[in-house]
Amino acid sequence: MVKKIGSLIFVLCCNFITAQVHCGLVSIVPNSSVNQIVVFDDTTKYIGGITINSVTKIRVKVEDKTIVDPLCSWNLKMFIENNSGAGTPIDEWEEITNYGNGAGKNPTINLLQVRVRNSCSTSPADNTFRNFNDANDILDIITDMLPITNAGSCTLSVNGPGSYLTNYDEFNFDIDIRLRPGARFNPGIYNLNIRFRLEENI
Amino acid sequence: MIAGVFGTANAQLIDEKDVTVTMDLQPVLQLDMTTANQLEFVFDDINEYYAGITNYAATILKVSSTVSWDLYAVGRSSGVTGAGFWDQQIDYGSDNANAKDLLPLSLLELRQSQPNNGDSGAQGLYSDYSSAFSVNEAASRANSLYVSSGAITPPSASDKYIGGHAGTSGTSGADFMPGGSYMTQNGTTSDYYYAMDYRILPGLPAIFPNAGSADGTGAQDIVTAHGAGTYAEPGVYTMYVQYVLLEDQ
Questions:
Q1: pLDDT tens profile B160-169
Q2: Beta-strand relationship, A130-131 and A112-117
């Protein structure tokens, strides 16, 4: 009797661990981290800014479950992190080191601009530089809880199952960044982390 | 009961990727200067002794800086004739006891095109070189060049700066100019662009009446320094003006 109960719990636990809501797989390929260093060392760069196109590519792969659930869809968002838990003000870059006396102001988050684009312009914000105002801001690439738009339509807000392997122009997002600090901030080294989160819609 | 609990606890599938941006803001202090390698003041006519010689806009100073800054000019020489004095390269004629070869560096006068807008905390009689050159009959030390015995030492709160001033109050306009560049300025004037005029006024006899101490309160003309009847020894003299742009600290 004890052995039967044990088997039942094991089965249920396994079921819990592998359970999905509507989709069988939701994945960014690859999902390894990227670290981009941007150096400002002359006046032209400070005034004109630096733009880096395709600092990374977000390649999306979303698959149905074995038994297809017609409600499988996904959303993609950007979060910003500045290590605020360590005391960084909510609207500033994380300070790694200051050059000089640091008597001025540290750079603010809003000087980082992010642009998302793909060939089908599936994001409502496609090809537009946007910025975060503080570490609580979230920027949508594909908004959550939209009606399902199937892959292959090459239109706005494609969010049905599919893959960059078969529908590259809809499931690949080029990420560009632009930094234009001007002569306003303390010289030093600063960090910001952009987190891309792909979720199935529930 | 166990089945009921686990049956409603489905997990939402999520994947994430991080892009960390490291921004290296290196300090830039850039002074672009357009000027002749050598400015010559040749006094070979009595009128030039009386009226002096002025070189207008002989030097153009353009500032680009990412940090708060101060800009000053300091008179310097090699010091072979004396520390704080022009270097005498050659003297003309026979030596006369009243002919003095110690010409103070401060006899050179400067005039900047744009007033210093970062000097409200200055404590001296003259905080910059923005005054118009004086008329020849009235001695004035408003434009005499700052000198620190021939050294490069920054001026004190009582002396002259071109932009910004001595001190680190942190109050904008008090003793520094904020970061910026002449390239992004609009209008006809800019705190990041200065045209510098030079004047030497020997007078007759040649005593350089406008030479003055660093703070402008003391006279350094030849007569004051060496006594009545003295004058500048004819000859060729050289010196140089060093423009220093530094972070306000």
A1: 999 999 998 8
A2: antiparallel
Contacts of A185 in chain B (CB under 8 A): 25, 66
B21/A78 Cα distance (integer angstroms): 14
Q: Which residues contact B1 (CB under 8 A, 6 or more apart)?
A: none
Q: How far apart are CA B2 and CA B139, in angstroms?
A: 102
Mutate to test the interface with A, among B8, B14, B22 (most CBs of A within 10 A): B22
Cα(B19)–Cα(B213) distance, integer angstroms: 59
Integer Cα distance of A25 and A165 in angstroms? 14
Q: Give the start-end residues of each E strand in chain B.
A: 14-25, 29-35, 53-65, 69-76, 87-91, 99-100, 108-112, 180-181, 193-200, 231-232, 235-238, 240-247
Query: pTM here?
Result: 0.81
Min Cα–Cα distance to chain A from B202, Å: 42
Mean pLDDT of the A64-79 span: 95
Report how many Cβ contacts below 8 Å link chain A to chain B.
176
Chain B residue with CA closest to A101: the answer is: B249
Whether the CB-CB separation of B182 and B64 falls below 8 Å is answered with yes
B-chain residues within 8 Å CB-CB of A43? Answer: 28, 30, 64, 66, 181, 183
**Among the listed ranges A138-142, A143-147, B150-154, B171-175, which one has the minimum average pLDDT value?**
B171-175
Q: Specify the residue for token string 């760069």.
A: A45
- Cα separation of A49 and A39, whole Å? 10
| pLDDT for the residue numbered A13 | 44
The interface pTM score, or ipTM, of the predicted complex is: 0.87
